[in-house]
Structures
1.
Amino acid sequence: MRANLTCINCMLEKAERNYLTYDQEEEGMLLFMKEVYGEIANAHIQDTAPLIYSKINAILEKKFDVGDPFYTQKRHYNQFLMRKEMEIYKRIQTADDQLKSALQFAMIGNLIDFGAMDEVDEEKLESMIEQADEQILDAKTLKYFRRELELNHKLVYLTDNAGEIVFDKILIQTIQRLYPKVEIQVIVRGGVALNDALMEDAEEVGLTKIVPVMGNGTKIPGTQLGVINQEAQESIDSADFILSKGQGNFESLSETGKNIYFLFLCKCQLFVDRFQMERFQGIFIRECDSE
């Protein structure tokens, strides 16, 4: 999904806000924004928003010691949801449809996104957790996904945000218990990208103890085929099916012809308009060139 004008305007606004975090001086801002506009002008027409964003962020990283801007938030939400992990897992185990329930919780976790939003409403997150069984999952997509689990062997699971990765762990454990023949490979970001989950997050929440996890070798807040490292590319190419979390992964992987199930919340106007849904409603859709 190539970046459109809405995406570009959003990136320009974020670039300006990000710069002001480190420097208030007007001349420096002007020079920085000139570089940003140049990066956008030189982008290929088919480039995705996550790819362009990563290039803009690289300009900022050259000027300042950016580090991991959302380190504190990532630790907070990992720990916050780990405290709720057992309660959520028990709710799933007692649900009439455990797979559906685990998917609903995994969808809710996508709220923890400091890329699409400036802050996360923790009260809203608590409310969504309480009402997880009210999240609507497309029945046809769920039917197809259940069939994949019954018939196929290799699932590649693409994570999105820290904190959210706890819900991913619970969904993976549920799949392992219900469909023990399915081999699951998890892929996280290879470097700091917004509040996206890294290997250290997978280790912190215990995901690496139950399933193989690899980094994709990039700081792109998505999964850009042809740019990620060879190990991640080969894993995706050899997968029977893919579960892709988050808007960034949708932006970078839609229309690639892979057998992908996308799971996320509509958090920005672009997705609200595209799917004709209200903000914070969930999306569970399938994309496969053979269908």
2.
Amino acid sequence: MESLRDNPIYQAKPESKFLQTGDFKTHYVEMGSGVPTILIHGGGAGADGWGNWRNCMPIFAEAARPIAIDLVGFGQSDKPDPDEGFVYSQDVRDRQLADFVKALDAGPVNLVGNSTGGLTALGAALLEPDLVNKVVMMGSAGIETGVIEPLKALTEYDFSVDGMRRIISSLANPDFPISDDVIDYRYKLSIDPGVRKGYSAFMRWIQEQHGLHRPEEFLAQLKHPTLVVHGKLDRVVPLSSAHRLLELIENSYGSIFPHCGHWAMIEYPELFTNVTMQFLNDDSIQSRK
């Protein structure tokens, strides 16, 4: 099998680094200097920090220190065995990110998450409020939406190349060009034995919870300045979810992208990064915690 390192998407990848987060290690890559800006990927099969954020990181690095992490069970982070009692739940992800921020020991950070990463950013900010400046939630999970047909591409993924193509097709807008490199990259990550086992366990957990959402009173606890970004054409998380997050989160701002699906940071990396950095760097937007 061709090494992932030979895939064009990995060219110029920053050095791999690790931090101990609870009982396992978290892998990350970083660029630049300045305020640490933690980038949290979503929960789709084959996701990882570098693959999701590689086009945004050099832009972020012009004015910040972007750090893209691999959530537990993904990429190069540890993959605890669910058969030995490890539970792949949202609480575990929230705690992992909170522990990462503490272990980084670099002062208050900004959190930027896409999809389930957005919900993870919110959860970590609630766990360690004094270590977080601002939060950006892009295409974020969290609101109960019922059964969404395009989500089945993720929850019923069969670990095939065609299955990966269906996932990516459900995430991006209809006009977005899907390269074979991206499909190949994510597919190879997804079939790693540990990743596959952890992903399957997390999908089962989601089904047991009847979706990936939190009580509205939980979401409303977030008091940090928060930017909610969403694509008008998002078929995985409906636009109504963004509207509801804006209603629930007291100090929230919104940015809605036309002609955009669930992957704003991949479909429109420059626009997403510029909008995000304008929000993060605006000193007039202050916390009211």
3.
Amino acid sequence: MATAPVVPTAAVLSHETLELHLRHTFTISRSSEDVAKTLLLRLEVGGITAYGESSPVGRYEETVEQVARQIDAMHLGDADFWFFDEIIERLPRDARAARCGIDLVLHDLAGKRLGVPVYRLLGLDPGCAALTSFTIGIADLPQTIEKTREARDLPVLKVKLGSGKEVETLEAIRSIYTGTVRLDANEGWNAEQAAKILAELGRFDIEFCEQPIPAGHPEQLRFVRERSPVPIVADEDCRTLDDVALLAGCVDGINIKLVKCGGMREAVRMIHAARALGMKVMIGCMIESSVLCTAAAQLTPLVDYADLDGPLLITDDPFVGVSYDAGRLRLPPLAGLGVMPRTLR
């Protein structure tokens, strides 16, 4: 008996720009912002509304407007939404931010169709979700102390550096904070500066430093790592799976961000590749709502470190998703990504 062909379910894919306002001006070595824009995606199919989000990174010359155009150009009339890779490949390989948004929508839809959270689809234990760090952006010393006091009860801080006064900044923070401290220079130093500065900062009991030098020079990361008492983690140098092998032996770990790599599927591939090469793994975020941060949090049972504080840095998150229990990520038990509009809560 012949099997009837599968008829694709009619679907409507839409998007809107979110403007997320920060609690404090967020400054890193190369930029500052008070408002961050992300793109929220909605896929309506078979009576289900699935959500995704993309927070394009200017560092990689991606914008919300560009991602919106790429999404609008997609043809989904014949799509079977169970075939994740086939749909994602309808976007250009270098359209990482757009691919991320679509990847999240597909995971949310699949979980909702099956009535299970995404972490259960992946066979992951939500009780093993990681602690997240909370970011202290670059500021003058009084502001840095104020922000540190606000976060002093959290177990892990990530301190942005790269504009000078590194020693003074760490002295101020360590005068009032005894928890775990991570550093992130966002490409702010050259190799010689990084080796010298990290040698000075080692006395402050630093867990690791992210991307101390400009990306594109793995051998210089190796130079820094060999001279630094502080472990080195690549961020801007590690965008996709193709970058992971190039960093083996040059760094102690990598920082994966869903919007950098193209979504959850690519992130899982990168995690396993890094593990095979003996590297630690962190999963991080940009300034983004609970949609994108909750998707990343679903993968934290697979990683060593998390930096998923996006919703904590903004005042107007329109969604509810992952929650924070003294820095511990608590994954929502709802189907799919587990997020819902705050107005429906």
